[in-house]
Specification:
This protein is α+β, with helices and mostly antiparallel strands. Helix content is 61%, strand content 11%. The protein has 13 helices and 10 strands. Strands 8-7-6-5-4-3-2-1-10-9 form a 10-stranded antiparallel β-sheet. Strand 6 (213-215) and strand 7 form a beta hairpin. Helix 2 (49-62) crosses helix 3 and helix 11 runs antiparallel to helix 12. The longest helix is centred in the last third of the chain and has 30 residues, at 258-287. It starts with 18 loop residues before the first strand and ends in a 17-residue tail after the last helix. The relative contact order is 0.15.
């Protein structure tokens, strides 16, 4: 069990007044909830899966505490079941459309696939809004504001290489011509621009996640500039390249040709740099969250701590062939929860010692929409 950094003691710095968050659950307890839900879902051909999902999510929230109170999740499993029936219907209709209305001859890309790709950002948005709407603390609900345009722009950029490939393939199929070197040059340029823009994508994603989330009447935000993400990406890429160079140097002593070593070493460096970048930007995200009343997250999450959790979780998942993946998720949740605190601002400070009714009166929102679907394609 990894050690948990404590919130700074009083008088140490501006985080002295931080209200600690804690997670009282265990990876083993979450694993039992997950396995039980999985078994019942398989026994009922997936019909129990919405109830299993709610039990898993509630386990994490109920065991996460702040100010002596736990977080709650009051979603209805029927809403999740209906949403999955809708998704299954869309998938079946898409498969039928792909059969009869192919966009590209001889390729498994048709009308249905295009429809699913077009609906994906909206489905993700609805899912996040659903989860936020039914998550509560002291009776006050979270809310995820609709930002469909931002999400479509984000996923359009993320899937830009795929869109470029499909577009060129469709144009070549429609004209009856084979792709030439000019097309490959175009795709190479698109891929290069896409790789260089990855830090910007991460920054955009974090802004979407934070700036559209609300707690009662308070809005959340992050204020980290994009250049910070590029600086992190540069450092982690140099670190990964140095490691790959050492590995390549070691292999070269065995007599292997440099041409054989070079490409795998570079690919390994890029993958490792992406992992390090993801870990470091997660740390930045949690340490920069703020609320509109001046409240902020006091984070003791470190790069080394997250890297340790990621490494152990990866080993657990790989060695167990995925069986212990739920424990890995709970370990990550526990580490983050136990390493953060809330420095209350002008309005959040009113929650300390307040009853649920008083808290709702202070920060609650009226007219909350409880309808909507959780567009989650997961089976279990």
């Amino acid at each position: 069990m990894e050690s948990t950094p404590s919130i700074p003691a009083a008088g140490q710095d501006s985080a002295a007044a931080a209200l600690p968050v804690s997670f009282a659950g265990t990876p083993g307890g979450y694993w039992k909830v997950y396995i039980t839900g999985l078994a019942l879902s398989l026994a009922t051909l997936g019909l129990y899966s919405p109830w299993a999902k709610l039990r898993r999510h509630r386990y994490l929230l109920v065991h996460t505490r702040l100010l002596g109170s736990c977080f709650e999740f009051d979603a209805s499993p029927w809403a999740i079941l209906i949403s999955r029936i809708i998704i299954l219907t869309i998938i079946i209709m898409s498969a039928w459309a792909d059969t009869f209305y192919p966009f590209i001859d001889g390729e498994a890309v048709g009308l249905g696939t295009v429809v699913i790709m077009a609906l994906l950002p909206a489905a993700i948005m609805r899912g996040r809004a659903f989860h936020a709407r039914h998550t509560m603390f002291k009776g006050i609900r979270f809310r995820f504001a609709s930002c469909y345009l931002h999400l479509y722009v984000y996923y359009g950029l993320v899937f830009l290489p795929l869109i470029a490939v499909l577009t060129l393939t469709y144009l070549s199929s429609a004209s009856g011509e084979q792709p030439d070197m000019e097309n490959f040059g175009y795709l190479t340029l698109v891929l290069a621009v896409w790789v260089l823009a990855m830090p910007a994508f991460a920054h955009f994603e974090h802004r979407i996640l934070a700036n559209n989330l609300h707690f009662g009447k308070l809005g959340l935000a992050i204020s980290v500039p994009m250049r910070t993400y590029y600086a992190v990406a540069g450092r982690r890429l140099l670190m990964a390249l140095a490691l790959a160079a050492l590995v390549a140097l070691g292999l070269s002593t065995t007599g292997m040709e440099a041409s054989v070593i070079a490409l795998p070493a570079v690919l390994l460096a890029l993958v490792w740099a992406a992992v390090l970048f993801k870990i470091d930007t997660a740390r930045i995200f949690w340490s920069s969250l703020q609320l509109s009343d001046g409240s902020r997250i006091a984070s003791r999450i470190t790069f080394a701590g997250l890297l340790r959790v990621f490494t152990i979780n990866s080993l657990l998942t790989i060695i167990s062939l995925g069986i212990l993946w739920p424990m890995a998720r709970a370990r990550k949740w526990r580490y983050i929860a136990n390493c953060i605190g809330i420095v209350p601002g002008s309005q959040l400070a009113e929650l300390e010692g307040a009853s649920d009714e008083q808290a709702i009166s202070a920060l609650g929102e009226e007219g909350v929409d409880f309808y909507g679907f959780d567009f989650d394609a997961g089976v279990i």
